[in-house]
Design goal:
81% helix, mainly alpha
Length: 320
């Protein structure tokens, strides 16, 4: 869903990025509230209001994701879809770095190699652009920071999204009223089609972000980082094939290095998962053998009513 968002923002290119952002914030809260009503999930609100630290983290999430949203909308409508996609390609590597530096997650050798290759890619891109690819870096670091803060809030996807949009709602509506008073509101002046698209920003924002929030509290940050390269793949294809942005050889080289880093991450994840499955299967076989051996011993030495107790004890072996 995130990979296809450039198409949506491109339909709104008559509106300023600031107005699109404000509508995205304002319409997200009614969507979140409707979902909470359907699910009858309000029990988290009072405990959250009594915890200033978590409220501060929610405010931090709202601020960081607002920066991310604004820059992404601006980049798409200013013809920088490829550079925006690069930011989300880099984001998994930044998430991994945050996992190591902040959450003390341990990296395997291939993951370290991927981070190194990704750093080299940024340097190549800096040479290719003739400047630091600041759009890509701000998008990558802001979204990685958002994911990191979500780990500390410990709210499920819908709950966290509702809390963040509640923080954004009043400033967003205030800005939209200001635009209306000045006569600069595209929502009012550009016809019913544009108005409906702006109102639909709430749904376009809510669904993928809720999915991300639900994942952020369930998965290691390194795993989330690995999966997030799917969206920029779609964005890259749109920038190249739909918006026809230029791709000189040096830019291809930078992207190729990023893709190499992601390929290393994928290979490492698949290999680790296969090893983990084998270890679980071996542990299961050992546990079964321990139970069978315990039952056989009891049957030989203590026939009768003691067999059931011995089987229970065998099942509690640490090998399980």
């Amino acid at each position: 869903m995130w990979g296809l968002l450039p198409l949506y923002w491109h339909l709104l290119d008559t509106a300023s990025p600031a107005e699109i952002l404000a509508h995205r914030m304002a319409w997200s809260l009614p969507v979140a509230a409707l979902i909470l009503v359907v699910l009858r999930r309000w029990s988290w609100v009072r405990p959250l209001l009594r915890q200033p630290r978590r409220l501060a983290l929610v405010a931090g999430c709202a601020a960081v994701i607002s920066v991310n949203w604004f820059l992404y909308i601006w980049a798409v409508n200013a013809g920088h879809v490829l550079e925006a996609s690069l930011g989300y390609f880099i984001n998994p590597l930044v998430s991994i770095a945050f996992g190591v530096l902040v959450l003390r997650e341990r990296l395997r050798p291939l993951q370290w190699t991927a981070v190194g290759v990704g750093t080299l890619a940024v340097l190549v891109m800096a040479v290719a652009y003739g400047r630091v690819p600041w759009i890509s870096l701000v998008l990558a670091f802001s979204f990685a920071t958002y994911g990191l803060l979500k780990k500390g809030i410990k709210l499920d996807g819908v709950d966290g999204f509702a809390a963040e949009t509640a923080m954004q709602f009043v400033p967003a509506v205030g800005f939209l009223v200001f635009l209306g008073v000045r006569g600069d509101s595209v929502f009012v002046s550009d016809g019913i089609g544009t108005a409906l698209l702006l109102a639909g920003c709430g749904v376009a924002t809510a669904v993928p972000l809720i999915c991300f929030g639900a994942a952020a509290v369930r998965l290691p940050l390194t795993t989330i980082g690995m999966l997030q390269y799917l969206a920029p793949t779609f964005q890259f294809a749109l920038g190249l094939l739909v918006f026809h942005e230029s791709m000189p050889p040096e830019r291809w080289a930078g992207f190729a290095l990023v893709w190499l880093a992601l390929a290393l991450l994928t290979w490492d994840a698949l290999r680790t998962a296969r090893t983990a499955r084998a270890a679980v299967a071996a542990a299961g076989r050992r546990a079964g053998a321990a139970v069978a051996a315990g039952a056989a011993t009891v049957a030989a030495d203590h026939p009768g009513e003691k067999a059931g107790a011995a089987l229970s004890a065998a099942a509690d072996e640490p090998s399980a």
